[in-house]
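Could you help me review a protein record that somebody else here produced? What it holds is a sequence and that sequence's fold in C-alpha cell form. I need someone to confirm that the C-alpha cell line plausibly describes how this chain folds. Take the sequence as given and treat only the C-alpha cells as open to question. This is what I was given:
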Amino acid sequence: MDPGLQHTNDHAHLTGGLPPGVIAEVERIATELSALGRDAETVGRPTRKVGGLRQFDIFGGRGFTSFLAVPRHECIYVCGITWYE
C-alpha cells in the first residue's frame, strides 16, 4: 500500500452502496493525489484557494470526491464521495 494512502477499516460510511467502479476510481485518484505531495493542495475546486477541503470530479462530472491534502501527514484524507446515478 502507498504510504500516502491510508485506508480505515471502516470505510462503509463513505463507500456503502456505491458501484465498485466508483470506489476503484476514487482510490485511484487518491493514490495519484498522494503522489503529488504538497501540490495536491491545489488540485480540484476551489480553484483560487490553496488547501482546505477540496473537490475533484469523477467520471466526467457524474460525481465528485471531497478530500483534504495534508502534506505534513504525507497523505490524502477522502472525506466524502458524491455519486449521481
